[in-house]
Specification:
The chain has 3 helices and 12 strands. The strands form 2 sheets. Strands 2-1-6-7-8-10-9 form a 7-stranded mixed sheet, with helices on one face. Strands 5-4-3-11-12 form a 5-stranded mixed sheet, covered by helices on one side. β6 and β7 form a beta hairpin. The longest helix is centred in the N-terminal third of the chain and has 11 residues.
């Protein structure tokens, strides 16, 4: 289920299937810079920039614009549509990309969510429909507490959101495929600090 043409490194990616209680452990295939802590000439840790996309619904061009505007180290696509993520990676093969399926993707063999550990931060990727995020973040909040997450990423609502609850930052990048105001999210990790923001596509 990993995107092709990515270099394998020693970094664990935990994958939770949609089937209850089933947890698989895999090795992530991503650029080594993501899982190490590169430093500049002064010895300061360089930031890791993550572009978060969701709900593209066939609109690949806005995703390409977001990549060009942000120059990310990693791209995360939170579903709807899976094929858009593959097409984006074909366009930028040197940038690692991870994704999860959405409610419109019809990919029962793909895990509904993924748990990444990047620079010591626990990050959950999901589309959000399995947590009922259109109604509330109550179920998502319980999951974040149970799994001791630093970042809970979801889409589905098409509405940008950044909300910190306890140790967990909840981020919804909105819809990059929205016909009027497409949006995306940017997460940075540096010196043990995690920051997340949403942006309207310029």
């Amino acid at each position: 289920f990993f995107c092709r043409a990515l270099r394998p490194v020693e970094a664990r990616l935990q994958v939770r299937n949609s089937a209850p209680g089933r947890l698989l452990k895999k090795f992530a295939k991503s650029a080594a810079v993501l899982y190490t802590k590169p430093k500049d000439l002064s010895g300061k840790e360089m930031p890791m920039k993550i572009l978060v996309l969701s709900d593209s619904h066939g609109a690949v061009s806005p995703m390409e614009q977001a990549v060009e505007q942000t120059s990310p180290d990693l791209i995360l696509h939170l579903g709807d549509c899976w094929r858009d993520g593959e097409r984006l990676h074909d366009r930028f093969p040197s940038i690692p990309l991870e994704q999860v399926p959405g409610n419109c993707d019809f990919r029962p063999t793909e895990p509904a969510e993924r748990l990444l550990e990047l620079r010591g931060k626990r990050i959950l990727l999901c589309h959000g429909h399995t947590y009922g995020v259109k109604q509330s973040l109550v179920t998502a909040g319980f999951a974040a507490e149970e799994q001791q997450l630093d970042l809970f990423l979801f889409g589905h609502t098409h509405r940008p959101l950044v909300d910190r609850r306890g140790r967990t930052l909840f981020l919804n990048p909105g819809s990059i495929g929205a016909p009027t105001r497409p949006s995306y999210g940017v997460v940075t990790i540096q010196d043990g600090q995690l920051d997340g923001r949403t942006w309207w596509l310029a």
